[in-house]
Amino acid sequence: MSLPQLVQGDKKLDMDKGESPKQSKIHASMESLKVQQPNINRRAAGSNWQAAAAGTENQQQIPPAEGTPPPLTKSARKRLKRNAQRNRFVAMDCEMVGIGPNGQFDMLARVSLVNKTGEVLLDKYVKPRDEVTDYRTSVSGIRPQDIENGEEFNVVQEEVIKLLQGKILVGHALRKDFEVLHIKHPFANIRDTASYKPLCKVVSNGRTPSLKRLALAVLGQEIQTGEHSSVEDARAAMGVYNRIAGDWEKYLEKRRHK
C-alpha cells in the first residue's frame, strides 16, 4: 500500500473514531513524516515498558557542557594521588663556605632540594655577598668559579621559600640551613634526621649521629666519601626518612596527643 493510501486509510479511521478534520490532518502529517512519540504507558508498551521508560529518561538527560573534561579513570586518580604524595615531601641540604676571620662564619654557597623519590627540584650555586676566607673545598666541594657565577642570594632564597610552601621538609641538622638561608619553616612540618630521638638512640646511643653514619646504618649506603654534594646529602636524608616514615609519623602522632 502506498503512503498516500495509508494516510487516506488513517484519515478514514480517524474520522470513524470521531476526530475532527483538523485533528485528522495533523495526525496524517505526523504519519507522513514518521514522527513517533514514545509511549511509556505500561499497558500500551507491554513487556517493553521499562526499556521505553529508560529510553525517555536518557533523552531527557542534559549533555555535558562544551569543554568539560571527561571524568578521571580510577588509574588516573591513583596517579594524581601518588604525584601529590611525592611532591608533599621535600628534602633540603646546603653547602657553605667560610667568611670572617679564619672562615669561622658560614655563608650559603649551594642549596639543593629533592622530592620524595629523589628527583632534583632545585640545585643552585649562590653568589657570595661577603668576602670568602675559606672555601672549605675538601668538604663543601665549592670552588671560586662555582659561586662567582652563581645566582643572587635573594633570588635563590625566594625560590626555596616557594618550593617549601606547605611542604613537609626533610633534612639533617636543618637549623644550620635555615640560618644561612635566613628562613623559617613550621616546626610541625620538619623531619630532621639529626634530632629524631628513636633513631639517634638506635644508631648512636642517643647522641646526634652524622648523616654519613645514618645513611650507612639505615640504607646500607656510603656517602660523603670525598667532597660533599648537597644533592647526594638531600637524597640520603630523604632515603632515611622514607625507610622509617611509618614509625616516625606514629611517634609524632603520639606526642601530639600527650
UniProtKB/TrEMBL annotation:
Compositional bias of kind Low complexity: 44-54
Chief site of localization: nucleus
Entries under Gene3D superfamilies matching the protein: Ribonuclease H-like superfamily/Ribonuclease H (3.30.420.10)
Domain of life: Eukaryota
Pfam families: RNase_T
Ranges for domain Exonuclease: 88-250
Protein name as catalogued: RNA exonuclease 4
